[in-house]
Amino acid sequence: MTINHPFKPIYNKESKILILGSFPSVKSREVCFYYGHPQNRFWKIIANIFNENIPTTVDEKKELLIIHDIAIWDTIKSCRINASSDSSIKDAIPNDIETIIRNSSIKAIFCNGNTSYKIFMKYFKDKINLPIFCLPSSSPANAKFSLQDLTNIWSEKIENYIKNKDEN
User: Fold this and answer.
1) For residues 162 and 113, which has the higher predicted lDDT (pLDDT)?
2) pTM (global) more than 0.90
3) Both ends of the chain: CA-CA distance in Å?
4) Where exactly are the structural domains of the chain?
5) Which of 34, 104, 112, 148 has the most beta carbons within 10 angstroms of its beta carbon?
């Protein structure tokens, strides 16, 4: 059965960094917001990078993103997927990433994991002329990296785009 992405991207015209996931997990679809699984480390990583408290509510999560000029969305608009397994994704239809680019100040795109990166490259590599980076997934299934490892890697990769955000 094909599942449609159930929620909208988070961004505004000042957004400078776009972080793309692949497709919402079962838990994220249940709570109808990004990175809803309690073991997913996305919100901890972002909070750690900016020395902020870890957000717990949807409003706090949105605020954390907006005040730091971060946009988030997923590369896939609809697909067939078993539970939350990216490796089971079939018949993926991409989201309209170009709309966010046109309506914001995005300077770079960061894919949260290999699936997001592969989908982006398949559908957008010749359409969107911005730096694109593949970050290790924040998913609990990515046990290879500790929270500190992920925070360090993510921070290092996006440092140039967050450190000088007022100059970009």
Assistant:
1) 113
2) yes
3) 43
4) 2-163
5) 112
